[in-house]
Specification:
four-stranded antiparallel beta sheet, alpha+beta, 2 domains, rod-shaped, about 140 residues
């Protein structure tokens, strides 16, 4: 009976880790690490005759290591996303359109490798468009 209770702790950690929205990799890593550590600690604790303590210690150490590794993975993913945004940003230009009432509208255009430009609605321009070209679509 004790064994079932101890083994249910890592399983519950794994199941609950899927509900997180932040630190997703850290939480998942903690759950998986706790499960693996709990099983390993339980099996290794058999030599000393204290499987319950071995399982608890293994789950704690495995959870800590899993969370650390998952957090490192999460930070690497965020870093990769920042780099991708910076690379995309260098191919974007904004153009401000003066509207008939004097207000201004910003239009962000993206450069294509072929030298053409895409507008926010998917339209394609052979070269960087002028304010007059964009006013009928984005101004008023």
């Amino acid at each position: 009976m004790k064994l079932n209770w101890i083994m249910s702790v890592p399983v519950l950690a794994i199941l609950s880790s899927g509900c997180t929205t932040t630190e997703q990799h850290g939480a998942t890593g903690a759950g998986i690490g706790a499960a693996i550590g709990g099983i390993a600690g339980h099996n290794l604790g058999g030599g000393s005759g204290d499987r319950d303590k071995g399982a608890a210690l293994g789950a704690a150490v495995g959870g800590l290591l899993g969370h650390t590794l998952g957090s490192v993975r999460e930070e690497q993913q965020r870093s990769d996303e920042r780099v991708a945004r910076l690379e995309t940003g260098s191919r974007e230009r904004e153009l401000w359109i003066t509207n008939s009432n004097g207000s201004r509208s910003c239009v962000i255009l993206r450069a294509n490798p072929s030298g053409t430009w895409n507008g926010p609605r998917g339209e394609v321009y052979d070269r960087f468009p002028s304010e007059d070209q964009l006013r009928p679509v984005y101004g008023f």
